[in-house]
Amino acid sequence: MRILVTGGAGFIGSHYVRTLLGTDGPETVTVLDKLTYAGNPANLDTVRGSDRFAFVQGDVCDAGLVGELVAAHDQVVHFAAESHVDRSILGADAFVRTNVVGTQTLLDAALRRRATFVYVSTDEVYGSIAEGSWPETDPLSPNSPYAASKAAGDLLALSYHRTHGLDVRVTRCSNNYGPHHFPEKVIPLFITNLLDGLKVPLYGDGLNVRDWLHVDDHVRGIELVRTAGRPGEVYNIGGGTELSNRELTDLLLEALGADESSIAYVEDRKGHDRRYSVDWSKIEKELGYRPAKDFTTGLAETVDWYRDNRAWWEPLKAGVRAL
Ligand code: NAD
Where does the NAD(P)-binding domain start and stop, copy by copy (predicted)? Predict the structure, then answer.
C-alpha cells in the first residue's frame, strides 16, 4: 500500500506519518509538502531513515508534480492546508489557492489513478452551534475564510465521489492538541508564552467553546476511516472534552504555576464562532472509535513536551513575531 500524505511536515500530518511508520506495517509513505512557515522538516526526523519513507518538497497546486506523484500511489491522505483562522482574516488568497485549488488538483489526479482519497476536514465547516452537536448530515455553514475554504474542499471531495464514483472519505475533527503544534495556535501559544513569563492573549469574553481532541486520537480516527471507512462517507472525529477558552486558560495557568494576572483580554477575533461540537457517534458505532487520551494527562504531557523542546519552538515563534 503506497500512501501519498500531503502536508506531512505539519502538526497533524507529521504525527500521522510518524505513527504509521512507527509500527511494522505494509505501508510506504511519500510526504508532499511545500514547507510553508507551518511545515517543519524536523517533525519528520525520526522517520527520515526509514526505507518506507520518502519526502518531496512541492505544492499541491502543481498539477504536473501532483499527477506524477499520485500516479505512483494507491491512496492519498490530504492534510495540506493553510490552517490558521486569524491568517485567513488578514488575507484569504493562500487559503483559496491551497485549500480549494490544491484539493481540486489532487482530486483530478486521484480520479485518473482511481486512488482512494481521504480528505481531512474540520468541524469549523458546520459553523457555530449554541446547543447540541452536529451529525454529519447537517448542512455546512462556515463563517471564517479558513472554514469556507475547507468547506469548499470538503464538498469538492464529496462531489468527486457522487459524480465520478471516486473512493473519497471525509473526516471532520474538532480542535487538535499535542506536541509539534505550531506556536501560533492557542494551546502552544499560551504554553510557550507562560514558559517565557509573558501574558496570554485571551479573545473577547473568553467564553467561546471548543472540543479538544488529542492528536493521537485524531490519527487513530483517520486510520480507521482510511482502512475501514466506507467510500463517500463523512466521519466526525471528536475528543470528548468541551471547554471554554477561559476554562482552558485556567488549566494552563495552573499547569505552569501562573495566575489570572497573566491573562491579557484582547479584542475578539472578527466573526469568532461561539461554539463547535461534533456528534461522533457514527465513527464510534461503525468503526469502534473512542478517544483514549484523557485531557488532563494529554495536556500535562503537552506542557512537558514544550518545556523539554524549547529548541523546536523558539525559532518558530521568533519567525512569527518578525512577520
Ligand atoms: P499545519 O498548518 O500544522 O500544517 C499544514 C502543512 O501543510 C504544513 O506542513 C505546510 O507546509 C503544508 N502546506 C501548506 N500549503 C501547502 C501547499 N500549497 N502544498 C503543499 N503543502 C502545503 O496544519 P495542521 O494543524 O497539521 O492541520 C492539518 C489538516 O487538518 C489541515 O487540513 C487542517 O485544516 C485540518 N484540521 C486541523 C485542526 C487542528 O486543530 N489543527 C482541526 C481540524 C482540521
Answer: 4-302
Same-domain pairing of 152 and 47: yes
83 in the same domain as 198: no
pTM of the model: 0.98
Q: Where are the alpha helices (DSSP H) in 11-56?
A: 11-21
> 21: Cβ–Cβ under 8 A, 6 or more apart, which residues?
27, 29, 47, 50, 52, 53
**Ligand 1: centre distance to CA 38 (Å):** 8
Q: Which three cell numbers stand for residue 204?
A: 473577547
Amino acid at residue number 126: Y
Contact between residue 147 and residue 96 where contact means Cβ atoms under 8 Å apart: no
- At 174-218, the pLDDT tens digits run 999 999 999 999 999 999 999 999 999 999 999 999 999 999 999
Question: In this predicted structure, what is the pLDDT of residue 284?
Answer: 98
Q: Is the CB of 291 under 6 A from ligand 1?
A: no
146 catalytic, yes or no? yes
Cell numbers placing 79: 492534510
Angle among Cα 194, 199, 204 to the nearest 5 degrees reads 120
Question: How far does the centroid of ligand 1 lie from the alpha carbon of residue 258, in Å?
Answer: 31
How many Å apart are CA 21 and CA 62, to the nearest integer?
27
Please name which of 73, 83, 75 lies closest in space to residue 10, comparing C-alpha atoms: 83
φ, ψ for residue 256 (rounded to 5)?
-110, 15
Query: Does residue 182 have its Cβ closer than 6 Å to ligand 1?
Result: yes
